[in-house]
Amino acid sequence: PLMLIAAPATIGCLLVLLFWDVVAQGALLTWLSILATTQATELFVWWRASRATESFIESRLWHRRLVLMVITAGVMWGAAGLVFFVPHNLAYQALLTAIELGVVCGAAMVHPLHTPSWRLSLGLMLLPLIVSHLREFDFIHGVIALLLVMYYGYLWRAGTTWSGLLENLWQRDVENQQLVNQLKIAKLRAESATQQKSRFLASASHDLRQPMQALTLFVEVLKMHQHAPQTRTLVEQIATSVEVMGDMFNSLLELSKLDSGGVRTHLAAFELQPLMPRMQAEFSVLAQQKNLAFSFNCPAARALSDAQLVERVLRNLLSNALRYTELGEV
User: Fold this and answer.
1) Which residues contact residue 71 at a Cβ distance below 8 angstroms, ignoring those fewer than 6 apart?
2) Is the whole-model pTM more than 0.85?
């Protein structure tokens, strides 16, 4: 509003004061009145358009009104090049030309994003002034008219470049916003898929844990009976395998909890050495089956962490080590 309304209105009043004694006062007052009406209408249009462009149809309506306002303003400032042009007075002519050039340049900078506006402004404002200089029919005014034509071409090229730059920036901003929206949608879908997977894992592990518990009870009952040495060894191996399967199901359940954010850590100081016998009892059978040397070397140290999570991490590491080691030792 400041550039569209205040600046042209102020320039118009000063222009009338400067030419009050050399131009017909009735023509000056008429021009100024029409200019003031035009500026007030532009202000009203701006105020209404800023609150009523929620749809494409409304935007096209206000677009047509904007073009109409630009044409009206251009005609008014172009008329100044005829009304305020004082014949045979180069000083006032130069003053009028300087003011008109400033207004034209300002119009090109005010409407860079709307190409029809600044192109209409250039032609409507400069062409009457060029005609006024050509009507003097002398060398100086001919050169001035030529310079005005060159200035017209310069502003046309600069405005085209500036409009293209702003349009590209605007388009990039819209594309970036679309990408952000797509990323938000993709993130929501990924989170939804993760939640569904977590619910599936939790349901599957819960359903599978029941037969695993029954199998564990059957193995414990089987261990209570007297067996031959070979049979007892087989029973112990079955018990170990059932225990490993139970740990795997527990890990599956913990994985679903981890995805859903359900795992909570409980930090505490604990000894590392007590973890080793449990690990050795659990994995020594697997090492013997693959003819691998299996040994531990743990110093007497304390750790500040979650003991259960540390044991689970070590168990996973050992399981992978024994699974993928064919020769040698762990």
Assistant:
1) 120, 124
2) no
